């Protein structure tokens, strides 16, 4: 029986999950905890509830991004340390893909455009399609303005999956939308799928998915951005 430990810290909603013996155990961090303070106790609690040791896990799955810089670095650091210590592999999972899976579990459609707030008046987005049990990446994770998201007419029925605080832009007003955030529950499921497909990587390859090369703006750049809004 495959056992997967998972964490998702790319957004303000941090979570952890353990899949063992066809059961899913979940923890969500409270708003008063920082991700770095809360994630290890959450993982320890999950392992205790599931009755397994870290070394019993087949892999650790984690949301590799895109998302908040600090949260992604937290995930990579925690996963690398735990995986090295337990001598197990890791499964990077794109956070936008986790959103698509969450939407698919509660929808009859198979087409998903997933969008997360990237700050600085930009968003991260990707387009996924589910055919049976197989996922196809129609558009890879991209950083752009919300109004620059483009979905072809042949995908007019795609469900738009929005992160917190986002609204449908004008060019997608004909689409149905739902609000969902990346969660460790789906990271675990995608990690399990990847592990069974032989996509597990070594701990040193637990690397973040960054779409923005420049993380911080200078004072002058912030002033220009504010004037442009």
Automatic annotation (TrEMBL):
Entry superkingdom: Bacteria
Residues of the Gcp-like domain: 33-150
CDD domains listed in its UniProt record: ASKHA_NBD_TsaB
Cross-referenced InterPro entries: ATPase_NBD, Gcp-like_dom, T6A_TsaB
Bilayer-crossing regions: none
Gene3D superfamilies noted in UniProt: 3.30.420.40
A GO cellular-component term linked to this record: cytosol
An example Gene Ontology biological process: tRNA threonylcarbamoyladenosine modification
PANTHER family, alphabetized: TRNA N6-ADENOSINE THREONYLCARBAMOYLTRANSFERASE (PTHR11735), TRNA THREONYLCARBAMOYLADENOSINE BIOSYNTHESIS PROTEIN TSAB (PTHR11735:SF11)
Protein name per the record: tRNA (Adenosine(37)-N6)-threonylcarbamoyltransferase complex dimerization subunit type 1 TsaB
């Amino acid at each position: 029986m495959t056992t997967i430990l998972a964490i998702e810290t790319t957004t303000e909603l941090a979570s952890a999950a353990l899949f063992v013996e066809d059961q899913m155990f979940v923890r969500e961090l409270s708003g008063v905890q920082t991700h770095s303070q809360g994630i290890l106790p959450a993982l320890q609690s999950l392992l205790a509830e599931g009755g397994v040791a870290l070394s019993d896990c087949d892999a650790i799955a984690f949301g590799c991004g895109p998302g908040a810089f600090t949260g992604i670095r937290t995930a990579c650091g925690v996963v690398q340390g735990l995986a090295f210590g337990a001598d197990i592999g890791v499964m990077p999972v794109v956070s936008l893909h986790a959103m698509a899976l969450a939407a698919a579990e509660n929808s009859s459609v198979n087409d998903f455009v997933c969008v997360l707030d990237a700050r600085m008046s930009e968003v991260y987005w990707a387009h996924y399609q589910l055919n049976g049990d197989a996922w196809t990446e129609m558009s890879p994770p991209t950083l752009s303005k919300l109004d620059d998201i483009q979905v072809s007419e042949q995908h007019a029925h795609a469900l738009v999956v929005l992160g917190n605080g986002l609204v449908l832009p004008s060019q997608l007003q004909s689409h149905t939308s739902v609000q969902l955030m990346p969660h460790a529950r789906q990271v675990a499921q995608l990690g399990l799928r990847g592990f069974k497909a032989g996509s597990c990587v070594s701990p040193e390859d637990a690397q973040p998915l960054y779409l923005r090369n420049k993380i911080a703006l200078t004072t002058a750049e912030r002033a220009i951005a504010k004037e442009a809004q």
